[in-house]
Amino acid sequence: MAKVKTVYTCQGCGYQTAKWLGKCPDCGEWNSFTEADVVKASKAQPKSIGARTSKPKTISEIEEESFERYQTGISEFDRVMGGGVTLGSLTLIGGEPGIGKSTLLMEVCGKLVDRYHSDKILYVSGEESESQVANRSKRLGVDNSNFYIFNETNWEKVLEQVKELKPKFLVLDSIQTTHSNQVESAAGTLSQIREVTYELMNYAKAYGLTCFIVGHVTKEGQIAGPKILEHMVDTVVYFEGDQLGQYRLLRVMKNRFGNTNEVGIFEMQEKGLVEIKNPSQYFLEQSIPGSFGRSLTCILEGSRSLFVEIQALVVENKFAVGRRTTQGLDSNRVALLVAVIDKYFGIPLSYNDIYVNVVGGMKLTSRESDLSIMASLLSSYFSMAIDSETIFLGEVGLTGEVRSVPMMEMRLKEIEQMNYKRVITSKRAAADFKGKYKLDIVGITKAVELKNLLFKKDKAFE
Question: Which one in 48, 144, 383, 429 has a CA-CA gap of 20 to 30 Å to 18?
Answer without folding.
Answer: 48
